[in-house]
Design a protein that fits this description.
With 140 residues, the protein is of the alpha+beta class. The protein is built from two helices and nine strands, in the order ααβββββββββ. Helix content is 16%, strand content 29%. The N and C termini lie far apart (125 Å).
Length: 140
């Protein structure tokens, strides 16, 4: 009975030692990481459970960033000149969607000449002249 107990103890120690070993290369070669359990908790982005297993039956997980088109994942400390979204990147990274640069419409003059800040009393205001007033009249 003593030999059986000793054998069980040696097997248990060996298994515990193996569970604390290095990451499983079958997992890391596929771009994955070993989970602390048999599931793949969400880290943002798209987290999938790969078919290979890590040591001690733990799940091999892979996270893929899923930022919308035009956005990029950035790391903490990087400056985002736009909107931040922490749901679509893996880990502690965030999606950065740049603020669109809007250019004003080009000015189209409704009148050919006489663009003024203000029309004289004898002139008639007619149309726009790029923020100014289009003054029409014979000037008498």
């Amino acid at each position: 009975m003593g030999k059986t107990a000793l054998l069980v103890l040696v097997v248990a120690i060996t298994m515990i030692y193996q569970c604390k070993g290095k990451p499983n290369f079958a997992c890391t070669e596929r771009g994955g990481y070993c989970s602390d359990s048999d599931t793949c908790p969400s880290l943002g982005g798209n987290v999938e459970k790969l078919s290979v297993r890590c040591k001690c039956g733990k799940a091999c997980c892979k996270c893929t960033d899923t930022c919308p088109v035009g956005s990029t994942c950035m790391s903490e400390g990087e400056t985002c000149d736009g909107n931040k979204d922490t749901n679509d990147c893996c880990g502690n990274r965030f999606c950065c969607t740049p603020t669109p640069i809007t250019t004003p419409k080009p000015c189209v003059k409704d009148c050919i000449h006489n663009c003024k800040d203000e029309c004289l009393p004898r002139l008639t205001r007619e149309g726009e002249c790029c923020g100014l007033t289009c003054c029409v009249g014979d000037g008498r």
